[in-house]
Amino acid sequence: MALVAKLSKLCPGNxxxxxxxxxxxxWKIGGTADVIVEPSSVAQLVSLRKFIFExxxxxxxxxxxxxxxxxxxxxxxxxxxxxxxxxxxxINDSEVTAESGIWVPFLAxxxxxxxxxxxxxxxxxxxxxxxxxxxxxxxxxxxxGSAVVxxxxxxxxxxxxxxxxxxxxxxxxxxxxxxxxxxxxxSKMRFQKVTNQRxxxxxxxxxxxxxxxxxxxxxPNCGSVFKSDPKMYPAFGPPxxxxxxxxxxxxxxxxxxxxxxxxxxxxxxGTATAANMVExxxxxxxxxxxxxxxxxVPEVRFVEPDGEVVSISDKGERFEK
Length: 321
Fold this sequence. Notes:
Elements lengths: L1 H9 L4 E6 H4 L7 E6 L4 H14 L3 E4 L5 E3 L4 E7 L7 E4 L2 E5 L4 H10 L2 E2 L11 H6 L13 E7 L5 E5 H4 L14 E8 L1 E2 L3 H18 L6 E4 L8 H4 L2 H7 L6 E2 L2 E3 L6 E4 L5 H19 L8 E3 L5 E3 L10
Parallel strand pairs: 2-5, 3-5, 4-17
Antiparallel strand pairs: 1-2, 6-7, 7-11, 8-12, 9-10, 9-11, 13-16, 14-15, 15-16, 17-18
């Protein structure tokens, strides 16, 4: 293929074809990706985005896929994967600059060893830093955005663009990066330097113990399916509790199941399809709306075959059945 040859020149040794997305997806769901490219430097990523723009090619950028559901039809576009090849970290006193492909729990451990506090809440979140910033992810109702000083990204033309914290438009589980078609390549963050590393470690261990007790670990899942609604919370509680009270804990459609451990985690029991998972998400979403008047917003987003990333926010007419 001529396209693969061109991509291989831009990112030597980092191009794969006909990749089963079920092997890549944390949900173990999805068809086959035509081509996946994993740049090993910012320069390669710049060249790759510029090439894609100039050629008018469809593409999608993924990290660890924690909040993505791939189509059963796979991907008919260029999939850019940002992972361990882009995971450098530089620490200068309380200021940390990290590339977007670093594994979040690993970054949390590095910060703990450097006696930097403020990132304990991310220690159990499976995913890469780029995805974490894009979703303003975190736990304990915290978000990584509070630590961000500056984000460096690459726009669709292959130009480097910097955003300060205010420009990132962080709010609960959202940021400007979900809709501005730029790719996060690194982030400068600031944490607090302390003298007691042991206290940081103890808090991280406590968070991990709590996650192990509540969340499914052995079955494929994408983490929390629905965002917590601050308006809904006082009257009805968090999504998992509401879903459980409605009797959906353990409920299945095909091999897609509301986890018996935690009702805001949906798991793949082996052969679940994207269609199964969309149907399950929409049914639970509708049930909660009918019972409470609040429509839960999914954290997980659906990846169309052409690379468009969309919210699962209605009855799924756009998705294959």
